[in-house]
Structure prediction request, 590 residues.
Amino acid sequence: MTVTATTGSQQAVTQDPPELDVKDASRRPHPWRWIGAGVVLVLLAMLVNMLITNENFEWDVVFAWLTAESIMKGLGVTLLLTVIAMVIGIVLGVLLAVCRLSANPLLSSTANAYIWFFRGTPTLVQLIFFYNLSALMPEISLGIPFGPEFVVFETNTLITPMLAAILGLGLNEGAYMAEIVRGGLLSVDHGQREAGAAIGMTDRRIMRRIVLPQAMRFIVPPTGNQVISMVKATALVSVIALADLLYTVQAIYNRTFETIPMLIVACVWYLIITSILYVVQSRIENHYSRGDRHQRTSFWDFLRIRPKGRPTPPAVTEGVTA
Amino acid sequence: MTSATTLDRSAGAAGSGPVLDARGVHKSFGHLEVLQGIDLQIAKGETVVILGPSGSGKSTFLRCINLLETLDAGRIQVGGRDVGYEVRKGRLHELAPAELARRRADIGMVFQHFNLFPHLNVLQNIIEGPVGVRGQNRAEAIRTAQSLLERVGLSGREKSYPRQLSGGQQQRVAIARALAMQPQLMLFDEPTSALDPELVGEVLATMRDLANEGLTMAVVTHEISFAREAADRVVFMDKGVIVEQGPPAQVLDNPQHERTKAFLARFL
Ligand SMILES: Nc1ncnc2c1ncn2[C@@H]1O[C@H](COP(=O)(O)OP(=O)(O)OP(=O)(O)O)[C@@H](O)[C@H]1O
Ligand SMILES: [Mg+2]
Prediction:
């Protein structure tokens, strides 16, 4: 029945499966996982119960306001601000990172100083600072340095709350993005630049075609975090009277005294935005990390339940040698 | 073979002089003088193998030729032109970066660790230079790339990514990428020393073909057999100087200098 290779040189032609097979092995029990899952379930039930039975949440108020026009406007400002501040942050971050890594000591130390200042002071303070710029410089003019001026702006009319918010958040974000981009650029092997140079590419082209695309894998995940942080950081602009989501909500509960339900309205929207961003981020990350994905454990695998007939998923192996 | 169309670009540019003309090349890293006056000429169609112990400055010399390292003193001309400089009013002036890049494109280089672009597939790796740098027509560049792949024995692998290829295959793609620029001179810096022993042969075979087809090549390698079979001339370098040079039979079988003898003794 079973053909075994008895002589060293002779290979067995066909082999029956072994009598004992690991696929039929009994799994080791994990009682603590079950107990842990039970505890979590009980706590979850208590939380849901409280959310439903505690009338102070005033869910009717929450739903009444959730899609009110003023809330939608505030949401629009929050989203717009997030997008503009992140775009400024990313563009500035790439420029600063390239400057910081440049061989030119003037460029690299200027970028260093910028990053040092904007990371070293609170965002809130920077926001208030830009909002009050007119106290420092009543007029802003375009012209030849120390020479004649062509256009003069009244700072107070030029710096609207929106502009102050964009400057405050965007310039600050640039400093953080610079560090993220720099880390990504440094992760690309130096041989890549040399190979590019050897086929006659200019430094700029090497950066754009060779280095940046490879650095993206290391830049995208932390950038996703930054976007999510930025959504919430925009709430800071309520201190400079810009009508974002939080400011709108505050304005309403200052009138109606429905503080908790209005804050819940804001939280619901922040959660919706960040959830969408989270999904987008995962998609982009998967795109840039093809070939080295990690197998995730499903909840059922964690509890060690394997439904009959469902084969264990094969390990993902990409980039096989041909 | 398609060699005639892809290799004969050097004919006009080089004129009758040597393709490589290096004179008195000096290079230091800090206090360490790595190159102490290298003189080397390579004629059109010649294959020169550079041998020498580790740290003797072989890589540094190759990298000086296409200006991946700047030289401290001396002069290197390729095809009758300085690579990183131009002559104006009897003096050398540093070239603008864009012009330097253009001149570098005429010199192919193959690296020890291949340095293929991992985010581009084989075809994109090869046409990046012709299309992106030289502005060649894309369809034409693809045709050239395909014939080059055929030449290095990798037809049909256009869509593969570098990490899907074996080391030997990657190095042959890297050779095709360099050839796609139709260089006047090809530099090889230990192209087989990062390869598993069983893969060395395929890369050396490709290089031997190129040598036979009349490509002008400077090859740093520890493969003595390649030097014996493919080289027109063997140069032995030690401690930043050329100790001796000549036809392979002379340098390899009948070395004149003690240092050459000591070095070659290790390969017996
Ligand atoms: N960028 C650098 N900075 C400082 N020292 C360097 C640099 N590049 C090379 N060197 C030194 O210069 C010397 C010659 O190096 P090179 O790489 O040219 O030798 P090699 O002959 O190619 O050796 P190998 O056979 O090991 O590749 C070595 O001592 C090395 O440490
Ligand atoms: Mg070397």
